[in-house]
Design goal:
This protein is mainly alpha-helical. It is built from 18 helices and no strands. Helix 3 runs parallel beside helix 10, helix 8 packs parallel to helix 11 and helix 16 packs across helix 18.
Amino acid sequence: MPSAVSSTSARTHTPGDPIPSPISTPTAAVAPCSACCFRGESLRPGQPRPRHGRRARAPPAQGLLPRRQLAFRWDELGQEIMRIAVPGALALMADPVASLVDTAFIGHIGPVELAAVGVSIAVFNQVSRIAIFPLVSVTTSFVAEEDATSSVRDKSETNGENEHDISDSEREQLIAPGETSPTASKSSFEIDSHEVHIEHKRKNIPSVSTALLLGGVLGLLETLLLVFFAKPILSCMGVEEDSAMLKHSLQYLVLRSLGAPAILLSLAMQGVFRGLKDTKTPLYATVVGDGINIVLDPIFMFLLQYGVRGAAIAHVISQYFIASILLWRLRLHVELLPPSLKHLQFGRFLKNGFLLLARVIAATCCVTLSASMAARLGSTPMAAFQICLQIWLASSLLADGLAFAGQAILASAFARKDYSKATATASRVLQLAFALGLILSILLGFGLRIGSRLFTDDQGVLHHIYIGIPFVCLTQPINTLAFVFDGVNYGASDFGYAAYSMVLVAIISIICIVTLANYNGFIGIWMALAIYMSLRTFAGFWRIGTARGPWAFLRS
């Protein structure tokens, strides 16, 4: 049988008709080249099909290194990352600002009270971090996964309903004009109300109920622990029976612990909102709550003359305000109560939560041991170390915003098996993290030497700060990459690797901290911390670079 081209060219030309042009002559469709170099585009007529031999396999991590101009492109993915990262980082920064205001108010009472409250805050924050950090991390990933799968399921159901509606409308055309169809008997009010109900239907995400229940229970357990064992815990922190700080530390810690259920519940709900890719709601709630705390502080502390107790009462009230706002907003979008107890996912939460608990303990041991080794050098090196450490870790407040964005988007992409978006997201947040680290290095390099006098006027302390500045500045890109790699691992639900790799990193780092601190003193401690963060970053690169675990798809 002749082809379309041959039959067209053999057609007889009639006088008066336009002479056919070879360009406008229809041609047979040429199958697209399956090779990646043509990206599925059709070949031009007459163009020879390229010969493809065996191609060398690219390294698995090459997909994470696109052209540099793509890292900062303001496209849909870039906007999605910024929508999550910026409010998340601002929400994290709100609490330290409120704590600074608290410290300023308490400092006007007296130095003893200030030192006592400092010890109590350190105890409360450390216990809360160990209790809630694993829960928040797994909640964000699980909620993002379930939200993505439920969205896909809802879309498929909606498409099925649309197909059903189209078939009904086609059937109605066959009905006689005098007859009425079942759908025609419905009033517009019923149809509109049904559509409104579907539009505002709350999502059923079992991980939300599980996270809230675990957060509330952990908060109650923390309250009981700190109320009944406050004195022994403070004694372990160096606040002995004959210390002038004991009375004020006990008052503040016991009263502050009454707000533990609200704090842990609020943090669990923040994990839920991050999983839903909504970091603005936690930001607004945190700003309102911290504003209430700042207003109530002088009222309770000075007007009502409650002193240190007034600061704790103001903080507790503000935390319950934050929890109430988040709970009110959350119930508008998600079903808070599960259909039955079997829908709760305690096993999944506890398994991965204990893995991250081991990770938190390992990371805490490294930083705590570094502070302990600095304290052995004397009060002057310890004071300089504390100032440098807080600045050194402050980058986490900004890098965690990118980590939240990467975790939420990656969890959704993996749930939908959208590996191309997972690769693009990991690449984008890691490159943004490195750029953020470079910017922080430059800013700290210029500003820290001048700004260090805002913390102290002691020449000995300033001398040690100047020694630590190069380590604080030059390791910022490493720090931001390490923090964002945490979000990447959590987004891929790679909790086991995140835990085991951190334990191994902690073992090596502890050996380095002890060894280098004994031989090189203050400089040795910072050398060991630089090794610690470098190992954390290397562990993240190793997992993706070798295409192991959830990143095995990079091999194909």
